[in-house]
Structure to design on (521 residues):
């Protein structure tokens, strides 16, 4: 028998006997009552009535109880309790069809209460009871695996889908791509995608998103054009993914073209698409266009506001970033960790050290947001820019987590700018910490050797470079890029194989000569 907790049982009213003079049979009456339930409490009362009346063996009632608990308004009110009750019912009544188990698995997988992992447990219970899964089962099981990056579980489910002949179903394949992508197994996702005999727009969107999630932004954009060449018309989701990839590679021309496609195809610029546009323009440096899109948006969420704040802050518009932050708070929108990163960057660029320290304190004490490494890095950058190198060093040493190499390099850069001769003694301490933390990172050693050389410590610089040679460490070539007419050109330090290398050098010599003539005049 299904057991309930004491608190639940105490709320259930004593069941009344069925009225024999009623026009309905007990079976019909219970089914009618189930259909009219509006709360979990009512479902539990009728469930108890069914058990007492000996009607609990009827699969129609069981299916209806599971359906009520896993969908509709009742689940929305009592999400965790409802889905867990449905799971217990499914486990107790062992002769259920796969459709009832699918309802339980789907409810867990689509839950927003952190229950996604439970979908995998429900699937295992289903298989233990000998119920065969179908093409409606696997998409939500793969979704569950993706939620907790369960690669091992996902591969086992992949094998089970193959065994049950569901592997060629497009919905199952799309969910497999999603699962492998979230587990950072790009090649496995590509293997599923390449073997698909029939692809939908969701298939292309999933593969584009997987590339973007794994950092292969150029490949994500390339897939977008392949999708268009295959006859598919992109939707809002496609454009969000493409714009996000475009933002990461910093290609403003492509981003503007994508925006033109949004307008040309008459797409509705909803909150998600509008946020992607603001983020793209902000990251590509066109804060004027970002602001235009932001101001025209009807609905904004915290990510929209944060993207606008970050966009202003990263490009030196600190005052505007802080104004947007104040406006956001006036709209009673609660900031998140990204919002505060933008605010701290803005304070750093504007030299507002006291305001930055206040916001950093408020982040955890007022809003309950635990600082991440990037927030600590922003604070170190802020103190370093203000010339408070000792305070910055003390701040790093007092952090509740161990500082990473990025943070130490930021502090060393500040030392190099604010205190070249190391009068404060902070630079040497930071160098020691950086070498101790990342002894084999050539970039750190080159940076430190250059610092030694600039202050005349030639022996230390040569000693460090000698150690690099002995360990076989080489300096990573510097890289820069420039965009011309929508095409991005990349240049590597010391690489003279560029297609127009001779012309570029000739132009540089002419410009150099021109500057010398101007200086003489």
């Amino acid at each position: 028998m299904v057991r309930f907790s004491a608190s639940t049982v105490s709320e259930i009213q004593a069941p009344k006997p069925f009225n024999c003079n009623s026009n309905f049979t007990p079976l019909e009456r219970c089914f009618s009552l189930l259909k009219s339930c509006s709360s979990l409490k009512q479902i539990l009362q009728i469930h108890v009535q069914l058990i007492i009346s000996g009607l609990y063996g009827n699969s129609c009632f069981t299916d209806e109880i599971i359906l009520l608990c896993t969908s509709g308004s009742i689940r929305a009110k009592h999400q965790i309790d409802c889905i867990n009750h449905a799971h217990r019912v499914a486990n107790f009544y062992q002769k259920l069809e796969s459709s009832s188990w699918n309802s339980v698995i789907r409810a867990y997988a689509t839950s927003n209460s952190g229950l996604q992992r439970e979908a995998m447990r429900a699937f295992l219970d289903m298989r233990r009871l000998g119920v065969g899964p179908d093409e409606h089962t696997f998409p939500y099981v793969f979704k569950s695996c993706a939620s907790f990056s369960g690669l091992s579980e996902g591969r086992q489910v992949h094998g089970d889908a193959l065994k049950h002949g569901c592997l060629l179903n497009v919905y199952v394949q799309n969910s497999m791509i999603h699962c492998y992508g979230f587990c950072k197994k790009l090649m496995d996702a590509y293997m599923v995608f390449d073997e698909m005999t029939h692809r939908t727009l969701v298939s292309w969107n999933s593969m584009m998103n997987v590339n973007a999630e794994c950092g292969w932004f150029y490949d994500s954009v390339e897939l977008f054009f392949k999708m268009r060449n295959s006859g598919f018309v992109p939707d809002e989701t496609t454009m969000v993914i493409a714009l996000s990839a475009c933002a990461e590679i910093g290609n403003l021309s492509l981003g503007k073209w994508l925006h033109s496609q949004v307008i040309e195809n008459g797409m509705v610029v909803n909150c998600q698409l509008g946020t992607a546009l603001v983020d793209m323009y902000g990251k590509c440096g066109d804060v004027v266009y970002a602001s235009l899109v932001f101001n025209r948006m009807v609905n904004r969420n915290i990510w929209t506001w944060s993207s606008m704040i970050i966009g202003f802050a990263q490009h030196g518009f600190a005052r505007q970033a802080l104004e947007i932050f104040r406006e956001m708070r006036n709209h009673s929108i609660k900031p998140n960790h990204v919002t505060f990163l933008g605010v701290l960057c803005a304070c750093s660029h504007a030299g507002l050290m006291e305001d930055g320290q206040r916001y950093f304190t408020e982040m955890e004490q007022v809003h309950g947001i635990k600082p991440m490494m990037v927030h600590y890095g922003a604070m170190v950058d802020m103190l370093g820019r203000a010339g408070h190198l000792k305070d910055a060093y003390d701040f790093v040493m007092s952090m509740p987590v161990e500082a990473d190499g990025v943070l130490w390099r930021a502090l060393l850069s500040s030392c190099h700018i604010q205190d070249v001769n190391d009068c404060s003694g902070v630079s040497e301490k930071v160098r020691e910490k950086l070498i101790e933390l990342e002894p084999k990172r050539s970039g750190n050693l080159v940076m430190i050797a250059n610092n030694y050389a600039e202050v005349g410590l030639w022996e230390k610089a040569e000693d460090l470079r000698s150690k690099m040679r002995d360990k076989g460490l080489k300096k990573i070539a510097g890289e820069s890029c420039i965009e011309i007419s929508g095409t991005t050109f990349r240049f590597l330090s010391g690489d003279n194989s560029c297609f127009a290398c001779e012309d570029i050098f000739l132009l540089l010599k002419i410009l150099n000569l021109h500057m010398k003539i101007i200086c003489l005049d």
